[in-house]
């Protein structure tokens, strides 16, 4: 009896993972080429940028916030990196500038929310618009071409059979998981999102926690800007439109609660892979775009619904 | 820069041609270009309202309009509606109040701008529709339409593809946002050509990649792991570049786009994409501006529909267009 109960608890705890495995099996049956090493490498590549953004978003949402500006920040920092990545400087410069640009947007968001007491949605909606404008302004609305061969090779290459982009994601996953689950800082982020008042009373500097989570999201968006330009080989001011929504989707599907305080890093990994595998699978099945939108929407809602139901029963 | 020079050389040639022809007859187009003549627009105030100013195509429109205005001596104001029909309606109303002699506009929506255009035309402003047509534009007092032909652009692109793959093979199509009228017209052009080639097969449904490079790149990566494609036909250059990145340089797959933007040219030069159809957006604006000046001077247009020509650009002639 006891072991049976243990298994049900285990399944409901890892329900989203079960759904993910089921999806992989169904897609493989429908189209065996889904499971080829080449396509699995594709899925990793396609998951990387959204996955990195989702980890930034995870910290923000767990701390009780919300960031609408990361897509614009990717475009803005991508333009900066494209301008500096024409081969005139070593590649470390565009990387540092992109990271710094993203960090600056994040700190601005966090400061407005923590110190200025603005609702996160309003503050980051403002920066979403303004930062997109900045990207258009410095690029004069045109795609920036001419990035160097070395810069292109970053996203195009692979190491030990795994695409370079995926290595960036793997590093982000490892570091973020460690920070979220094994450090005092991580526990404070959860505490802050769980109950701000209680966290304050407990002596946590909640303003610092809020600002720093937005700074992490901005910093990772800067990394994505750098990688995005390498991947598409141009700096596009209109790139990464609505990527914040994809990042939020990955978090929510992965079990991060929109009300803060709850969420596990492995859930975000599964959430990211799940939505990437859906898009990839529907593409290789040759499903029309209209249907893809419907199927994607349904799967997201169903996955979360089943997850919530499963957990509800447990309690 | 070269393209600008070419335009001014061409203008010079056409100007002399026009002088020889004399000014008594109605102004007509030559090779898709209409010119009123240098300095003919002195003293006129004209506004040009763009859909938005956020891509290479639109920037080419702004730059060509500014160059044409300088040549004509027109005082030009450029405004962007940022893809919002309500903004564009207010802009038309405002320009009519502020006494502009002519308003050129690229409608954000084919059906939303008619009444605003009519109101301005009723106040005596010359209203010219550029780039994409309003539905039944002639019913709204619009004096002329200056545009390219998206159906023809699609046909030009697909014909080149069909020839390059020898009239048979597997192809896939990347489209703009579902429901975008320009995209649908290009698709219609593709279908017109495909009707003549029963051996060319679309192995997947056309994919809506929102004009976006990254999105097209992901879709094509996925396709290439499951299908053998001979050609990938994209409705704009941005998506063609994404397909080219997924396939790699000199992949042996024919990859084409439409627009003739700098990212497309770069990819043509390094072999990631095969070619593109230039829509000459700048020419559409320049023709519209010249048409406005001709009408303001009390002259007539031979035809009030001004269509620019499409050009196929590939590795052989790409250097002429940069």
In short:
The complex is a heterodimer of chains A (about 325) and B (about 325). With about 325 residues, chain A is mostly helical.
What ranges of chain A have pLDDT less than 50 throughout 5 or more consecutive residues? none
Reported for the largest beta sheet of chain B, the result is: 7 strands, mixed
Encode the helix/strand succession of chain A as letters: HHHHHHHEEHHHHHHH
Determine the number of helices of chain B (DSSP H or I, runs of at least 4 residues): 10
- On the 0 to 100 scale, the average pLDDT of chain A is 89
Provide the number of structural domains of chain B.
2
Which terms summarize this structure?
heterodimer, A: 315 residues, mainly alpha, ABC transporter involved in vitamin B12 uptake, BtuC, two-stranded antiparallel ribbon, 14 helices, 2 strands, 76% helix, globular, B: 322 residues, alpha/beta, Rossmann fold, seven-stranded mixed beta sheet, 13 strands, elongated
Describe the structure.
The complex is a heterodimer of chains A (315) and B (322). In chain A, 76% of the residues lie in helices and 1% in strands. With 315 residues, chain A is an all-alpha fold. Chain A has one domain: Orthogonal Bundle (ABC transporter involved in vitamin B12 uptake, BtuC). In chain A, strands 1-2 form a two-stranded antiparallel ribbon. The radius of gyration of chain A is 20 Å and the shape is globular. In chain B, the strands form 2 sheets. In chain B, strands 6, 7, 8, 9, 10, 11 and 13 form a 7-stranded mixed beta sheet that branches. In chain B, strands 2-1-3-4-5-12 form a 6-stranded parallel beta sheet, sandwiched between helices. In chain B, helix 4 links the parallel strand 3 and strand 4 (126-131). The radius of gyration of chain B is 20 Å and the shape is elongated.
């Amino acid at each position: 009896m006891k072991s049976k109960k243990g298994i049900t608890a285990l399944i409901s705890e890892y329900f989203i993972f079960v759904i993910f495995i089921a999806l992989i099996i169904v897609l493989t049956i429908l189209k065996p080429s889904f499971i080829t090493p080449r396509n699995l490498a594709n899925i990793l590549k396609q998951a990387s940028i959204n996955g990195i953004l989702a980890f930034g978003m995870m910290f923000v949402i767990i701390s009780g916030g919300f960031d609408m500006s990361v897509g614009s920040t990717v475009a803005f920092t991508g333009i900066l990196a494209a301008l500096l990545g024409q081969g005139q400087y070593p590649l470390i410069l565009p990387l540092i500038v992109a990271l710094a640009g993203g960090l600056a947007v994040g700190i601005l968001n966090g400061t407005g929310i923590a110190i200025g007491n603005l609702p996160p949605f309003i503050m980051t909606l403002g920066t979403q618009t303004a930062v997109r404008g900045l990207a258009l302004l410095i690029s004069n609305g045109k795609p920036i071409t001419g990035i160097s061969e070395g810069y292109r090779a970053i996203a195009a290459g692979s190491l030990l059979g795994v695409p370079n982009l995926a290595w960036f994601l793997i590093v982000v996953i490892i570091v973020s998981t460690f920070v979220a689950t094994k450090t005092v800082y991580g526990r404070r982020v959860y505490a802050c999102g769980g109950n701000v008042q209680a966290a304050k009373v407990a002596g946590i500097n909640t303003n610092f926690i809020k600002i720093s989570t937005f700074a992490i999201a901005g910093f990772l968006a800067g990394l994505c800007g750098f990688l995005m330009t390498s991947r598409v080989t141009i700096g596009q001011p209109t790139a990464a439109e609505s990527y914040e929504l994809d990042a939020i989707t990955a978090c929510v599907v992965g079990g991060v609660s929109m009300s803060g305080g709850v969420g596990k890093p492995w859930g975000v990994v599964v959430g990211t892979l799940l939505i990437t595998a859906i898009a990839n699978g529907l593409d290789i099945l040759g499903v029309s775009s209209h249907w893809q939108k419907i199927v994607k929407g349904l799967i997201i809602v169903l996955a979360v619904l089943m997850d919530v139901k499963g957990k509800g029963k447990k309690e | 820069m070269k393209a600008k020079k070419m335009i001014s050389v061409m203008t010079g040639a056409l100007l002399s041609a026009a002088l020889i022809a004399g000014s008594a007859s109605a102004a007509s187009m030559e090779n898709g270009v209409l010119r009123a003549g240098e300095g003919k627009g002195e003293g006129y105030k004209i506004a040009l309202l763009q859909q938005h100013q956020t891509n290479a195509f639109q920037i080419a429109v702004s730059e060509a309009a500014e160059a044409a205005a300088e040549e004509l001596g027109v005082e030009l104001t450029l405004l962007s509606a940022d893809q919002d029909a309500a903004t564009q309606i207010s802009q038309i109303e405002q320009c009519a109040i502020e006494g502009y002699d002519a308003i050129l506009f690229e409608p954000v929506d084919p059906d939303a701008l008619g009444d605003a255009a009519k109101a301005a035309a009723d106040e005596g402003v010359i209203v010219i529709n550029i780039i994409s047509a309003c539905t039944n534009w002639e019913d709204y007092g619009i004096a002329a339409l200056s545009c390219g032909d998206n159906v023809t652009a699609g046909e030009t692109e697909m014909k080149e593809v069909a020839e390059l793959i020898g009239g048979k093979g597997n192809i896939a199509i990347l489209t703009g946002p579902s429901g975008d009228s320009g995209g649908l017209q290009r698709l219609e052009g593709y279908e017109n050509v495909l009707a003549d080639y029963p051996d060319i097969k679309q192995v997947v449904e056309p994919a809506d990649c929102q004009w976006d490079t990254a999105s097209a790149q992901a879709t094509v990566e996925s396709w290439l792991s499951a299908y053998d494609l001979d050609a990938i036909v994209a409705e704009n250059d941005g998506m063609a570049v994404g397909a080219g990145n997924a396939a790699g340089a000199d992949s042996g797959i024919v990859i084409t786009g439409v627009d003739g933007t700098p990212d497309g040219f770069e990819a043509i030069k390094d072999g990631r994409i095969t070619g593109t159809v230039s829509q000459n957006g700048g020419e559409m604006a320049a023709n519209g501006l010249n048409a406005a000046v001709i009408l303001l001077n009390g002259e007539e247009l031979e035809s009030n529909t001004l269509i620019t020509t499409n050009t196929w650009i590939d590795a052989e002639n790409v250097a002429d267009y940069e």
